[in-house]
Amino acid sequence: MIARALILSVLFVARLAHANGDEFYRFNALDGKDLASQVIFAGIIKDADGRHLNDVKVTFSIEVASNYGPKTVSYNAYTNVAGRYRSLDVASVVATLEEVAITVDPAQVQITATKKGFTLARKFNRSPARQKTGVIEVDIEMAKQP
Predict the structure, then answer these.
(1) What CA–CA distance (Å, rounded) separates 76 from 60?
(2) What is the CATH class of 30-144?
(3) Which of the residues 34, 58, 84, 135 could staple to 25 if both were Cys, CB 3.0 to 4.6 A apart?
(4) What is the Cα–Cα distance from 32 to 52, expressed in whole angstroms?
(5) pLDDT average, residue stretch 115-136
(6) Hey, how many other C-beta atoms are within 10 angstroms of the C-beta on 71?
(7) How far apart are CA 30 and CA 44, in angstroms?
(8) How confident is the model at residue 15 (pLDDT cuts 50, 70, 90)?
(9) Contact by Cβ (8 Å): 138, 124
């Protein structure tokens, strides 16, 4: 009986710790040493009434130099049930996809959000303008399409 209770409690705690992959979205889950050289975008997406929107496709795009001239590199993230999203490190994605090393200025990265029945209404950059690395917080408001 005690063994069964112990197993059930361990399974319950494990489920809470990783429900919906939620640990991924916590800023303090990121390794602080590595943040000094990374550019990661994170935030919350809500509708005009303040309700969190899940399964919103968030696209990050940046123009990089290539052997054939400028090229736009894009990749996606999706919001979870709490409306939160987080990108991968932009420079790491570009290095993986294009085999090009770049230094990323967060202002160069274009962020768009799409969800059926909604349009992007506003973006709120909650990070200081001088912040060039680490987690850049950008919240997004979406409006219902008529």
Answers:
(1) 6
(2) mainly beta
(3) 84
(4) 28
(5) 94
(6) 15
(7) 17
(8) very low
(9) yes
Contact 26, 88 (CB under 8 A): no
Structural tokens at position 119: 């349009």
> Tokens 């029945």 sit at which residue?
117
User: How many CB atoms are located within 10 Å of the residue 51 CB?
Assistant: 10
Angle subtended at Cα 143 by Cα 142 and Cα 144, rounded to the nearest 5 degrees: 125
Instruction: Output the CA torsion 17→114→105→62 (10° steps).
Output: 120
The two three-digit tokens of residue 125, written as one number? 């950059």
At 69-111, the pLDDT tens digits run: 899 999 999 999 999 999 999 999 999 988 888 999 999 999 9
Q: Where are the chain's structural domains? A: 30-144
Evaluate whether 44 touches 86 at the Cβ level (below 8 Å): no
